[in-house]
Specification:
Layout (H helix, E strand, L loop, with lengths): L20 E7 L2 E6 L6 E5 L6 H10 L18 E3 L18 E4 L2 E4 L14 E4 L4 E2 L9 E8 L8 E9 L13 E9 L18 E4 L3 E2 L6 E2 L2 E8 L8 E7 L5 E7 H10 L24 H11 L14 H4 L5 E5 L6 E6 L6 E6 L2 E6 L5 E6 L8 E9 L2 E11 L1 H37 L1
Parallel strand pairs: 18-24
Antiparallel strand pairs: 1-2, 2-3, 3-4, 5-6, 6-7, 7-8, 9-10, 10-11, 11-12, 13-14, 15-16, 16-17, 19-22, 20-21, 20-23, 23-24
GO biological process, one term: neural crest cell migration
GO molecular function, one term: semaphorin receptor binding
Protein name: Semaphorin-7A
Length: 448
């Protein structure tokens, strides 16, 4: 390991002007290493083994690598590191930060690290890579201190959860309850299949997030002691998901420590059955903590299908005498695109649960999976066979909907058609004039 020069201009505090390696994990078949890089977070891939790597990989295998346990001054080429194509945003902090956690779970990466150095100071829990990026709103947690992120398997794979454990300020501390502890410990869950909300403000936020208080009490002593401050979490998985054990290390304000054990089954039941705080209304059809796409029962779907089979009146909309206008949706638009030019069509994805497909004359030409904001179709070189009708259709479970339709036309051909139409319209009044004149002559003859 050798010292290398770093640019310290990005750091306000000179103690951060070094490279703290804060995360090591395996992602996409490679060892991913991320560090502060003198306030310019960077990730590298381990490209070849070297002698100096044995102790480092030993710490990785044993899980002993903490956020401040390793400080390296290195030249990447000499220790077998290659800069990764993966952005280090939210994967490494800008300096030493004990509130920074990262979890790799398959293709998804979850993080508590803020994205920017001088804003976004409210800690959030995010999914930063893999499926759609989601984050917690600013009001979900109050000054959280994160302890652990862990994947939790359920009986059905689509219902798998991510648990994260943290301490936060107690909202009941102070005037509301003088005996309440200043800090309380929490466990929160989100569904892995969460794709965000449907509205513009909720599209990038978790919709399945629930949190509950972790209580650790020593009731065997003469005086009941509460241990309110969660320090660490260790999980022992079981072949039966419900029997997985969660060991929590707690402290109290007097400096005493205790270990409390929870089962995933107990925590899961608490999330499923407990009443919602400050809510007394009817339980919604889609209960909090459920993946929306799986929340509808078969009976409910059958009922919806039956309601769609009812007869409806056909003449709801006023008709027009222009038969050409009737053949096109009122939401369709005509676009003139010159030959050999470039053009793209954008279909806004209003639902994170739907897949979107672009069709050209009823033939699929582009497909966009759920979890993105826009579905784009590019035409790099406009040719004659590319003119025609383009429709973007969303598909969510059994429901299809046309979101937008565009008719691409050749401006040269369109001008000729308009000219022919104008000639046709000009000849029509002329014919009417002669018919009217003949009618008047006939009336004159009859009168005479």
């Amino acid at each position: 390991m050798k010292r290398f020069d770093v640019n310290t201009s990005e750091c306000e505090d000179q103690k951060d002007a070094v490279n703290y390696l804060t995360f090591i994990g395996k992602y996409q078949g490679k060892v991913l290493i991320c560090g502060t890089n003198a306030c310019k977070p960077t990730c590298w891939n381990w490209v070849r083994p070297v002698v100096a790597s044995s102790s480092l990989l030993g710490m990785l295998a044993g899980g002993d690598l903490g956020i401040s346990s390793l400080v390296l001054f290195f030249c990447p080429l000499q220790v077998g590191l290659k800069k990764s194509n993966i952005s280090a945003q939210s994967l490494a902090p800008f300096g030493l930060d004990n509130n920074s956690l990262v979890l790799i779970d398959g293709k998804d990466i979850y993080s508590t690290i803020r994205k920017f150095q001088y804003n976004g100071r409210i800690p959030r829990f995010r999914r930063v890579l893999g499926a759609a990026e989601l984050y917690t709103s600013d009001t979900v947690m109050k000054n959280p201190q994160f302890v652990k992120i862990a994947p939790i398997k359920q009986e059905e794979a689509y219902n798998d959860k991510i648990y994260f454990f943290f301490r936060e300020d107690n909202p009941d501390f102070g005037s509301n309850n003088p005996l309440a502890p200043k800090k309380i410990s929490r466990v929160a869950q989100v569904c892995k299949g969460d794709k965000g909300g449907n509205g513009s403000f909720s599209a990038a936020k978790w919709t399945t997030l629930l949190k509950s208080m972790l209580v650790c009490v020593d009731s065997d002593t003469n005086k009941v002691r509460n241990f309110d401050q969660l320090q660490d979490v260790f999980i022992v998985e079981s072949e039966q998901w419900s029997e997985t054990k969660i060991y929590g290390l707690f402290q109290n304000e007097w400096g005493y420590s205790a270990v409390c054990v929870y089962s995933v089954d107990d925590i899961s039941k608490r999330f499923r059955t407990s009443p919602l705080k400050n809510y007394s209304g009817k339980t919604p059809a889609v209960k909090p903590g459920q993946v929306k796409s799986r929340a509808l029962s078969k009976r409910f779907i059958i009922t919806v299908l039956q309601s769609l089979n009812h007869d409806v009146p056909q003449n709801i909309c006023p008709t027009s005498n222009n038969s050409e206008g009737n053949s096109r949706s009122p939401y369709a638009k005509e676009v003139s695109v010159a030959l050999h030019s470039r053009y793209f069509m954008n279909c806004s994805q209003e639902s994170h649960y739907a897949n979107y497909t672009w069709f050209h004359n009823d033939r699929p030409v582009a497909h966009c999976n759920s979890g993105h904001r826009h579905c784009l179709h590019f035409i790099d070189n406009m040719t004659a066979e590319l003119y025609g009708k383009y429709s973007c259709v969303s598909t969510e479970d059994w429901f299809n909907q046309t979101v937008i339709t565009e008719y691409l036309e050749n401006p040269a051909q369109g001008s000729r058609e308009r000219q022919e139409k104008s000639i046709g319209f000009a000849s029509t009044p002329s014919l009417s004039f002669w018919l009217g004149l003949l009618h008047m002559i006939a009336i004159v003859f009859i009168v005479q």
